[in-house]
Amino acid sequence: MSQRTIIKGTGIPLIGNDIDTDRIIPARFLRCVTFDGLGEQVFADDRIALKGEHPFDLPQYQKAKILVVNANFGCGSSREHAPQAIARWGIEAIVGESFAEIFFGNCLTMGIPCVTTSSGNIKSIQNLLHGNPDISMTLDLETLKIQCGHYSSSVKMDSGARSMLTTGKWDTCGLLTKNIDQIKATATKLPYLTW
Predict the structure, then answer these.
(1) pLDDT for 29-69, tens place per residue?
(2) Is there a contact between 92 and 112 (Cβ–Cβ < 8 Å)?
(3) What distance in Å separates the CA atoms of residue 107 and residue 93, rounded to the nearest whole number?
(4) Which CATH number is 138's domain given?
(5) Is 184 part of a structural domain of the chain?
(6) Residue 46 maps to a domain
(7) Per residue in 77-104, pLDDT tens?
(8) pTM for the full model?
(9) Residue 188 falls within a domain, yes or no?
(10) Which range of residues forms the domain containing residue 39?
(11) Which alpha helices (H) appear in the chain, and where do they start and end?
(12) Is residue 76 part of a domain?
């Protein structure tokens, strides 16, 4: 199983409230059979409109692991392609003011922590990342702290979701393979299942 306790790396600031899933991954990319290649198309229309000036295009943010967003991030449709595109671009955690519920759930299913903090803390972190894109960030799910250089603040996450990430229970395939002997033992006792 894959526990998520500490995520380290650089960050990428994405300023704006109510960034919906259609902006994260436009509908024309939903026809794919697999999620492969979605990372290249994340924020495709916004990136075209900003002609290379979108944070996801700027060279200083290309290896970022932690996305820092504002309020109601991931609102709109329930498409799981949105967190898939973000993750396939390279993001491993998201810190924001608030998240749309279905987007949060889709991220949790993939093992991507979405933690919240105040708008003041978000603004401070985004400003630090603008001024110094190479600044190191650490998200600690055990202590519920985010560190950005010398700046530190507490973050919030539902205790159930946090437990799923820190114990690895979010990883359902990992749970199955870890408990394969127990599954086989139970299967032999089922009257309707024969091997």
Answers:
(1) 877 667 778 889 999 999 999 999 999 999 999 999 999 99
(2) yes
(3) 9
(4) 3.20.19.10
(5) no
(6) yes
(7) 878 899 999 999 999 999 999 999 999 9
(8) 0.89
(9) no
(10) 6-168
(11) 21-24, 38-41, 44-49, 81-89, 101-110, 119-131, 159-167, 172-178, 180-188
(12) yes
